[in-house]
User: Which sequence fits this backbone?
């Protein structure tokens, strides 16, 4: 089991997590909330934006400055292209309780993965399951995809990072001064090499926080035989959706359709008969 205790020092955590607490917001149409218990006294809030019980589902881990409710305007856009979106928070974010750490982020991710699958089964959601992570959330998605390959159909990484030390340096944190090596960090490069399911990596060409070169490293190191890489011209770290607009959701939909066979020539031929 990986040891992330060196990253869990308070002076380092303050650069990794930016928790923003808020009360539970009103549900958008078609959405539902789920509180998942991590340990006694600690829950993490999740919000599922559901369009159809048979539609493919994305379990989504967001960036370090976002919350579940920030996706109330985004979830319906996934629904418009026929995708269910399941967004989870981290400890101390939104209405979730507890304090975030790297160690609990990964252990909580495993619980959230299993509980989400259980909720989907109990509520008749039969669509294929995909993992998606944005920015910090890429670490959760990559970690889970490496561990639970048999239980997912594919992985989507948006604005993800490869190596931790260069990212920390760009955020003003010199980890080498703390005697921390790359293999004691998030280790995304080593983990993504273990992924065998189809992978789609998106990145902003003008990302000033995580340069597009990081996405290129993830792409080259990914162990999946089927993998796609798309750079969005003119987009920075936080503006991919704003710049790409509906094309963002269409690209994700096309990737999912390809994996689930919806776009196969046999089904297209059948539809014309």
Assistant:
């Amino acid at each position: 089991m990986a040891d992330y205790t060196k990253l869990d020092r308070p002076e380092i955590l303050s650069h990794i997590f930016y928790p923003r607490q808020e009360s539970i917001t009103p549900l958008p149409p078609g959405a539902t909330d789920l509180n998942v218990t991590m340990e006694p006294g600690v829950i993490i809030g999740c919000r599922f934006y559901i369009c159809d019980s048979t539609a493919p589902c994305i379990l989504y881990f967001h960036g370090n400055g976002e919350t579940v409710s920030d996706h109330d305007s985004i979830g319906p856009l996934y629904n418009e292209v026929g995708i269910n979106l399941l967004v989870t928070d981290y400890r101390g974010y939104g209405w979730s309780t507890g304090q975030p750490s790297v160690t609990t982020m990964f252990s909580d991710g495993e619980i959230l993965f299993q509980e989400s699958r259980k909720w989907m089964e109990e509520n008749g959601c039969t669509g294929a399951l995909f993992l998606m992570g944005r920015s910090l959330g890429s670490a959760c998605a990559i970690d889970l995809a490496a561990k639970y390959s048999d239980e997912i159909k594919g992985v989507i990484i948006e604005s993800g990072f490869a190596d931790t030390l260069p990212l920390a340096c760009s955020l003003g944190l010199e980890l080498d001064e703390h005697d921390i090596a790359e293999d004691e960090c998030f280790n995304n490069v080593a983990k993504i090499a273990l992924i065998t399911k189809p992978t789609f990596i998106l990145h902003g060409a003008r990302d000033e926080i995580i340069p597009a070169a990081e996405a290129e490293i993830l792409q080259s190191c990914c162990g999946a035989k089927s993998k796609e890489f798309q750079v969005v011209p003119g987009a920075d770290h936080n503006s991919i959706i704003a710049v790409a607009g509906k094309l963002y959701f269409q690209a994700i939909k096309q990737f999912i359709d390809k994996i689930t066979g919806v776009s196969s020539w046999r089904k297209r031929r059948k539809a014309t008969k």
Q: What stands out?
A: The longest strand covers residues 31-39.
